[in-house]
Design brief:
The chain has helices at about 55-60, 80-85, 105-110, 125-130, 150-160, 180-195, 205-210, 245-260, and strands at about 10-25, 25-40, 45, 70-75, 90, 165-170, 200-205, 215-220, 225-230. It has about 260 residues and is of the alpha/beta class. The chain folds into two domains: about 1-85 and about 165-260, P-loop containing nucleotide triphosphate hydrolases (Rossmann fold, 3-Layer(aba) Sandwich); about 95-165, no CATH class. Helix 3 (about 105-110) packs across helix 4 and helix 7 (about 205-210) packs across helix 8. The protein is globular.
Length: about 260
């Protein structure tokens, strides 16, 4: 089943994407016949039960997993080209910061390893990115001196330092308390609108998906497959109070009903 966002050339395009893993215990189909198109600058969340292939889909886009069948195109070419050109940023649930490096040195790390990207003139410095994510004044703090939410902010800044055109986020706020998660949801929307980066965001939270996204891709399991693509027709900017509105509740209720059939 192919799901398309009409009107623009996609930043990410999957056509009939299938992923199978084979081991001594047999073959598992993680994704089957998945189609999706994400426009440049779009924000799409992936929502579904555990085992439906959300993280696998991100890894397809990141060139970490090859498709068994079908095609994956990123920025008009193969995912490997986007990866080599450092057009992709990845944020995981665990910020995985180096404990002996300060916040700013952790953000700087991608600039010190791997192939150099195009001329960085005009790009944000690591210090500017830490200010962008709300960590001005904590540039020289070590990871153990930062809260969980602050460490995740450092991870987001690190993912942005190479100025990726696509940001892949795999449950980045899943381990945080509700208050911190709400704050980082608001911060992420601000960063997205300021940078214009295309975002694919994995979450298990219906309210988070509706609050952040332009569209939510619902995946079913056994095997992972597209259930439906839902538009979140709520205007930006979105204050947290939007979650109490009838339109928000209507979209969330529809997603909840879909998940009950996945």
């Amino acid at each position: 089943m192919a799901v398309r966002a009409a009107g623009v050339n996609p930043a990410v395009s999957l056509e009939g994407a299938t992923v199978r893993f084979t081991s001594e215990r047999g073959t598992v189909t993680a994704l089957e016949n998945v189609g999706l198109q994400v426009p440049p600058g779009g924000f799409v969340s992936l929502l579904g039960p555990s085992g439906c292939g959300k993280s696998t889909l991100l890894r397809l886009v990141a060139d970490l997993v090859p498709p068994t069948q079908g095609t994956v195109s990123v920025l008009g070419g193969p995912p490997a080209t986007a990866r080599v050109n450092r057009e992709l940023g990845f944020v995981f649930q665990d910020p995985t910061l180096l404990p002996w490096r300060s916040a700013v040195d952790n953000v700087r790390l991608p600039l010190e390893v791997g192939p150099k990207k195009r001329d960085r003139s005009g790009q944000r410095t690591p210090e500017e990115l830490l200010r962008l994510v709300g960590l001005a004044g904590r540039e020289h703090a070590l990871p153990h001196e930062l809260s969980g939410g602050m460490r995740q902010r450092v991870a987001i800044a690190r993912a942005l330092v190479s100025e990726p055109r696509i940001l892949l986020m795999d449950e980045p706020f899943g381990a945080l308390d509700e208050i911190t998660r709400d704050t980082l949801n608001e911060e992420l929307l601000r960063i997205w609108q300021e940078t214009g980066t295309t975002i694919l965001f994995v979450t298990h939270s219906i309210p988070e998906a509706v609050f952040l996204s332009q569209r939510v891709l619902v995946l079913a399991t056994n095997p992972g497959r597209v259930r439906e693509l839902i538009d979140c027709e709520l205007p930006y900017p979105r204050p947290l109070s939007v979650r109490e509105t009838p339109d928000f509740i209507r979209i969330a209720s529809r997603l909840r009903a879909l998940l009950q059939t996945c």
